[in-house]
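Shipment paperwork, digital attachment
Item: protein structure file
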Amino acid sequence: MEGQVPKKRGRKPKPKEDKDQQQPPQGKMKEAKRGQHAASVDEKYTQWKSLVPVLYDWLANHNLVWPSLSCRWGPQLEQATYKNRQRLYLSEQARSRSFTDGSVPNTLVIANCEVVKPRVAAAEHISQFNEEARSPFVKKYKTIIHPGEVNRIRELPQNSRIVATHTDGPDVLIWDVETQPNRHAVLGASNSRPDLVRKHIKVVMFAYLSSLWNILTGHQDNAEFALAMCPTEPFVLSGGKDKSVVLWSIQDHITSSASDPAGGKSPGSGGGSIIKRDANDKAVDGPTVGPRGIYQGHDDTVEDVAFSPSSAQEFCSVGDDSCLILWDARVGTSPVIKVEKAQNADLHSVDWSPHDSNFILTGSADNSVCMFDRRSLTSNGVGSHVHKFEGHKAAVLCVQWCPDKSSVFGSSAEDGILNIWDYEQIGKETDAKAAGAPAGLFFQHAGHRDKVVDFHWNTHDPWTIVSVSDDCETSGGGGTLQIWRMSDLLYRPEEELLEELQNFKTHVSKCTAKN
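Attachment content:
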């Protein structure tokens, strides 16, 4: 696994301290152009930071020594008067040119995050942060030493203490993060042992795991990015370089508390593992477990997968063949609908609307996001999108629907921008449209200075987002984690805002009259 050369999106990062690499003579011109680009980025960033008190209700900036390729919200732990405490899952990519022998471990980090409630943070304070410092709102709770890179993290919706990770090899690893021991990421540290190992090939790459946890066969090559957990059943979906989509069920390997959170103990309460175990504390598994299905239809690497919000049997996938494919496990392993040339380049991301099962988003290397209505898709034909959203200047890496409003979604890209879109605004005469903004775009988060590789909406705190950037190009390494929420003046209905302003005006008038 150490010798694998990952795709561009899974590049080998370096830490922020590793800035003394020798540049070849032919690279000096490129370095000069990079310096000019960095100056432009810094100028835009300075402008953005000056507007933070106006545009944001709350923002926390957290410096990362090592880059991260994935960030996800976990369960909410506590609600208080002014803030809530919540788990946050984050990867650390600790493979660098200085440590090619793998002596510095990659890690899966479980953090406790304090999420400030709306209209609590003072406007003059949220922009006063040090880019090189760690945020007081994010505190590391536990570290898991991960076998290989952590390219993707996905939590089980039925119980978010169960987490799946994709690595730079053919394995999907399943973790019960609450029962995993806390480890120290020191030189030469041994890997943590996952609760379940979902094997993609029949060759055992981690021999010590084979007798302790089950091996799920399926993929015949590495699977690095495409990973999804089903919202309705404990199913896991994966895609890989073997051009296939593989579906498993972990129902038989977890206790009933996984699908019934109310019956289990709260996270961090010290309860036992919800992975089924025998009398010797070994996971209750056979030596190998085959997948529920292997689905063939792509002609190149599968880059992302997503489940239907209403059915565990329906899912979709996108890949480097520019195809969007819809599958139905009830009718076989062949595509139900295959949209050829869904966009004009590799497709990096896909998301199925949790509000309307007809709408699907795709993000592409052609710098755009497309929205499809599956009712208008035709099999074996060139699909026509409902709308194409063009506002990025580089490849789109992640798309995700907003859980708080059905017409809103976000997209992040290699241009360092996280755009928030509202397709209901298309065709309407708005101030943004008059200013020449792309159709449907109503907010741009420009707080990152390099590729925004992942982001996740918070389902517990409305309109709150965590986003992470890989800062290798601009700062020589490391990354930036930001947790933010735009001002509610930007997304609340106009009538509601006018009513609130009128009530405030009346209140001020009464106070003035008393004095």
